[in-house]
Each structure stands twice: as structure tokens, then as C-alpha cells.
């Protein structure tokens, strides 16, 4: 702060503004939390300089207030900071409904994720940990990865904010070095988080990772930071961490089929620890461990409907839409549903069969711009 007090008069004179003391404090606090690539006091000074320009040009004010500093940080990071804006309040309060536009069923997962994010944005959680950390347990094709994609889009603004790691590729003892770097080799995890600190990190099939990798994650989950091979401290406090696992999938399936869902989570976690798949200290680090259950036939049809909606968004450029009739959805599920892979094969059915029918109708001239295509089950 003392260094800022010396520099602020120069910024005020140069930009013909008045910088409030509260704005100086805001610059220090926000620079400390959100700007990791520039040291103090430079990053706080840069924020105040940019806030002064913003206040004059965008804010049309000669007084630099804390909200001007907050807006500059938002522009630089693309992450909402400071007082939660009305639009974001609406998103957070309606987060379950928004996520359910893309996720069918899995109410427990959606509620747990939404509550964790609400705690984070209201400012009552520890700033030394990631925004949220979750372990999703369940069979393939029930919505674990789709939840991560939807969350990245809702919270960070785009699915491109999701960084994905296939942990089956990190089964060897030297996998730790691949993640944090060694010598001239850049760390695959640390480098990406340094370059995109406001991201959702998805670690798929974490049970396949080498045990040393799981030990490495303990520090990230507990302290929100990780030290790379060069001694640099990588900040994870602005990330959301999601780990997925198929371990125990058969136990989940059997419990649902046999209507033995009472204490399912406790039985599953006990099994995973007894078989040595996960250690208690790893499981206890998460904000929530969430079970994803197999989808019912009705839920799977709703997933198929979501996939048709995705196709319709792509066809919008051609001014063509597909009518998702109940009969068509049932046929897609009949062809594509797989007990082992869940709803995942439905995308391939839509691609290979539904899209092929649409392509033929377009090429033959049977369908033209502005049409809504009705596809009978027999056509696929």
C-alpha cells in the first residue's frame, strides 16, 4: 500500500482522476487473488492505471471507485469479481434448472455442485482452496462428463474453459513428472493452469492413475496450489476440479436394479477403500463425492432428445429442423442404448442414421430451406 500511495498521485495527474483509498485496497486484494503472472507492486499499479482509463472512457467518471477496479479485473480475466452482478445472481440461484437443460436426472450431483458454487461466489468459502472439488462415481454414459462441460459453460462462459486429462495415460511412476514438468519438459498440468487459471479441470478415470498422482492431488485439493519442477507455485484457487471414476460401477448398477439403494454411497466408498482403489485421505478431500446412477429408459429418451436439439442447432444455419417425435426417440434408444456404455452410443446412432437420412433428403431435393423434417422410425 505504501508504494501505491507514492504512485497514485502520478496516475491521478496523468489521467485527471481522483482514486479513492477503497479503490487502492481493492486493487491490492484483487491483484493478489486474480493476477498471478505479475509480481507486486506492479500488478496493483497496472490495475489502478487501467481502472483510471476505464473510469474516464467507459465509466464517464473522474473518480476511480472500487467497482471500476473490479470491472477491469473482469475484463482481463473474464471472471465475475466483486459484488455479484444481478445477472450472475440469477444464474446462481437458478443453477440447478440451468444445468438440467443439458443434464438428465442426477439430481444429487446437480444440487451438490450448485450449492458449492453458491458458497464460493457468496464469499463464505476458503480462498485457499479450489472453487469446488468433486468426485463423480458411476457407470459410463450417465452424464458425468456432460455435467463438467455444462458447468464450464455456465460458470466460466464456455466449454473451451474445460481442460481435460485422460488419467489412463498417467499410469507409470514417471507420470508425476509429466504433469508438473522435469528439466526442459513443461508440465502438462501446471503449464495449462498457469496459462488458463480460470478453468474447469476434468480428470477422467482417475482410478487408473498411478498412486503417486493421487498423492500429488492431495495438496491441490487441500491447499489450492502445486509446486512445479522449477519451484514455481501454481495457483488452483480459481479452478473447479472434477474427477470421474467408473470404479464400483457394477455395485451401483446392481443396487439400482435390485432396489437396494439404501446406504449406497457408504457401501460404495467402503468397497473402494477396502479394495485399495482410493485411500481415505483422498476421498475425504473433496467438497462432495457424488454417485451417478444408471439412466432409466425414459431418461435415456430425454438424452436422445437433447442430442437431437444439438443437431437442430447445427441445422439452423440451413434453416432446417428435425421433429423429435416420441417414436423416433424410442427407436434411437432401442438401437443405441447399451447397459455397459449407457447413453454414450446414442450420439453415434444419431450421426450414422439420423444425419444420414437428413443428408439424403437435402441432396435429393425432398427437403428445402424452412422445412421441418419428420423422420419415421423405419427410416433409421
UniProtKB/TrEMBL annotation:
Whether Oxidoreductase counts among this entry's keywords is no
Report the CDD domains cross-referenced here: RecA-like_ClpB_Hsp104-like
Any Pfam family matching the protein: AAA_2
Q: Where is the AAA+ ATPase domain?
A: 130-263
Any one GO MF annotation of this record: ATP hydrolysis activity
> Would I find Plastid among this entry's keywords?
no
- What superkingdom heads the lineage? Bacteria
Task: Cite the Clp ATPase C-terminal domain residue spans from the record.
Answer: 295-380
Q: Which keywords appear in this protein's UniProt record, sorted alphabetically?
A: ATP-binding, Chaperone, Nucleotide-binding, Repeat
Q: From its record, what is one biological process in GO terms?
A: cellular response to heat
Task: Give the UniProt entry's GO cellular component terms.
Answer: cytoplasm
Q: What is this protein called?
A: Uncharacterized protein
**Which organism was this protein described from?**
Candidatus Doudnabacteria bacterium RIFCSPHIGHO2_01_FULL_50_11
Amino acid at each position: 500500500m505504501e508504494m501505491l500511495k507514492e504512485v497514485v498521485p502520478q496516475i491521478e495527474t496523468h489521467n485527471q482522476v481522483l482514486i479513492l483509498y477503497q479503490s487502492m485496497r481493492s486493487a491490492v486484494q484483487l491483484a493478489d487473488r486474480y493476477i498471478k503472472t505479475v509480481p507486486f507492486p506492479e500488478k496493483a499499479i497496472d490495475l489502478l492505471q487501467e481502472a483510471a482509463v476505464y473510469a474516464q472512457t467507459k465509466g464517464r467518471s473522474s473518480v476511480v471507485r472500487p467497482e471500476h477496479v473490479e470491472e477491469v479485473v473482469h475484463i482481463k480475466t473474464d471472471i465475475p469479481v466483486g459484488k455479484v452482478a444481478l445477472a450472475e445472481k440469477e444464474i446462481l440461484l437458478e443453477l440447478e434448472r440451468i444445468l438440467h437443460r443439458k443434464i438428465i436426472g442426477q439430481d444429487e450431483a446437480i444440487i451438490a455442485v450448485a450449492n458449492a458454487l453458491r458458497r464460493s461466489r457468496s464469499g463464505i468459502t476458503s480462498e485457499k482452496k479450489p472453487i469446488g472439488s468433486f468426485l463423480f462415481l458411476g457407470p459410463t454414459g450417465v452424464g458425468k462428463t456432460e455435467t463438467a462441460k455444462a458447468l464450464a459453460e455456465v460458470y466460466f462462459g464456455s466449454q473451451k474453459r474445460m481442460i481435460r486429462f485422460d488419467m489412463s495415460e498417467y499410469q507409470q511412476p514417471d507420470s508425476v513428472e509429466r504433469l508438473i514438468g522435469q528439466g526442459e519438459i513443461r508440465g502438462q498440468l501446471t503449464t495449462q493452469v498457469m496459462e488458463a487459471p480460470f478453468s474447469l479441470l476434468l480428470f477422467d478415470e482417475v482410478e487408473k492413475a498411478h498412486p503417486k498422482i493421487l498423492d500429488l492431488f492431495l495438496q491441490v485439493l487441500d491447499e489450492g496450489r502445486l509446486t512445479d519442477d522449477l519451484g514455481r507455485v501454481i495457483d488452483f484457487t480459481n479452478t473447479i476440479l472434477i474427477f470421474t471414476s467408473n470404479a464400483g460401477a457394477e455395485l451401483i448398477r446392481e443396487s439400482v436394479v435390485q432396489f437396494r439403494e439404501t446406504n449406497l454411497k457408504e457401501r460404495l466408498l467402503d468397497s473402494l477403500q477396502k479394495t485399495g482403489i482410493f485411500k481415505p485421505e483422498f476421498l475425504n478431500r473433496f467438497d462432495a463425492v457424488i454417485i451417478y446412477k444408471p439412466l432409466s429408459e425414459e431418461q435415456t429418451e430425454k438424452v436422445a432428445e437433447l442430442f437431437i436439439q444439438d443437431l437442430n442447432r447445427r441445422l439452423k444455419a440451413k434453416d432446417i429442423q428435425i421433429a423429435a417425435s416420441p417414436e423416433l426417440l424410442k427407436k434411437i434408444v432401442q438401437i443405441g442404448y447399451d447397459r455397459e456404455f449407457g447413453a454414450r452410443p446414442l450420439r453415434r446412432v444419431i450421426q450414422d442414421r439420423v444425419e444420414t437420412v437428413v443428408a439424403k433428403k437435402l441432396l435429393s431435393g425432398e427437403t428445402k430451406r424452412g422445412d421441418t423434417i419428420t423422420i419415421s422410425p423405419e427410416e433409421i
